[in-house]
Amino acid sequence: MVIYTKRGDKGETSMYDTSGAQRERVSKDSLIVEALGSIDELNSFLGIAKTQSKDTKTQKIIGEVQKNLLRIGSITGGSKLKFSSVQTKKLERIIDEFEGKLPILKNFVIPGGSINAAQLQYARALTRRAERRVVALSKIQYTKPNILIYMNRLSDFLFMLARKANADFEILDEVWIGRRK
């Protein structure tokens, strides 16, 4: 199989269903391609963050998130796969676990600290962008509610994972105190 087909050279791409049958040609600047590209960008960057994690459990969790993002991309692209609310509940359990072990926050966290925490904070921002694209797409194309909920929770999860990464590297989160005189 050749990786290049030349069919996208004029700014359009094909959308396929799960059987591999071509559904339609769409512009590469369409909302669906923008949403899929944002999900892909997030997934790729999570691969970088995963390699920098100090904790094998965290690496495994990020790997599961990456698989979920591939599933979400596939569903968004038209596949009939299912996406369960169980995936969101898993994120919530992990968030709750981390929150119980980390110092209570009373201020915003400035992204940074360890390289891994900074990467995870950037992945959080990429998640927010992907979420905005999926929400925009949901205005013109049915989007499973579980996907919207998962994308929203994923940014919270990555925020907590970034805080945990700093703790793993024994680095305190830098907080922003906005009301200093």
UniProtKB/TrEMBL annotation:
Pathway terms, separated by semicolons: Cofactor biosynthesis; adenosylcobalamin biosynthesis; adenosylcobalamin from cob(II)yrinate a,c-diamide: step 2/7
Record family assignment: Belongs to the Cob(I)alamin adenosyltransferase family.
Keyword check for Transcription regulation: no
Keywords, in A-Z order: ATP-binding, Cobalamin biosynthesis, Nucleotide-binding, Transferase
BP GO terms, sorted: cobalamin biosynthetic process
Matching PANTHER family: CORRINOID ADENOSYLTRANSFERASE, CORRINOID ADENOSYLTRANSFERASE MMAB
Known EC number: 2.5.1.17
Keyword Nucleotide-binding part of the UniProt annotation: yes
Source organism of this protein record: Candidatus Woesebacteria bacterium RIFCSPHIGHO2_01_FULL_38_9
The protein's name: Corrinoid adenosyltransferase
Record-annotated Cobalamin adenosyltransferase-like domain positions: 3-165
Highest taxon, organism lineage: Bacteria
Reaction(s) catalysed by this chain's protein: 2 cob(II)yrinate a,c diamide + reduced [electron-transfer flavoprotein] + 2 ATP = 2 adenosylcob(III)yrinate a,c-diamide + 2 triphosphate + oxidized [electron-transfer flavoprotein] + 3 H(+); 2 cob(II)alamin + reduced [electron-transfer flavoprotein] + 2 ATP = 2 adenosylcob(III)alamin + 2 triphosphate + oxidized [electron-transfer flavoprotein] + 3 H(+)
GO molecular function, one term: ATP binding
